[in-house]
Amino acid sequence: MNPQKKFHLVFSVVMAAIMVFIMTFIITLANVGWVEDFVRLWLKAFAIAYVVAVPIIFFLAPVARKLTGRILGMPA
């Protein structure tokens, strides 16, 4: 795997972890409150969302970069 592809894969894994960690915590807290089994509910939501987020970020990050470049009038 070339360094650019490896970077993109690792970026996707790390970005998904950060975003999913924060978002599932906030949404779980908003939906159920600070209940006794909050951590279990949050970790279940995290696991499901993480599996979905990694491929989404992997495939859509390049599209988002290109779109951002177009919006800002930057060369490709």
**Count of DSSP strands:** 0
Distance between the termini: 23 Å
- When the domains are counted, the total is 1
Counted by DSSP, the helix tally is 2
Broad shape: elongated
The structural class is mainly alpha
Instruction: Estimate the strand proportion.
Output: under 5%
Relative helix content: over 70%
Say what oligomer this is: single chain
| Cα-based radius of gyration, to the nearest Å | 16 Å
- Low-confidence regions: none
Mean pLDDT: 94
Account of the 3D structure:
The chain has 76 residues and is mostly helical. It has one domain. The protein is built from two helices and no strands. The longest helix has 34 residues, at 38-71. The chain is elongated, with a radius of gyration of 16 Å. The relative contact order is 0.14.
Helices and strands, with pairings:
Elements: H1 3-32, H2 38-71
Helix pairs in contact: 1-2
Describe the structure concisely.
By secondary structure, the protein is mainly alpha-helical. The protein has helices at 3-32, 38-71.
Which descriptors would you attach to this protein?
elongated; 76 residues
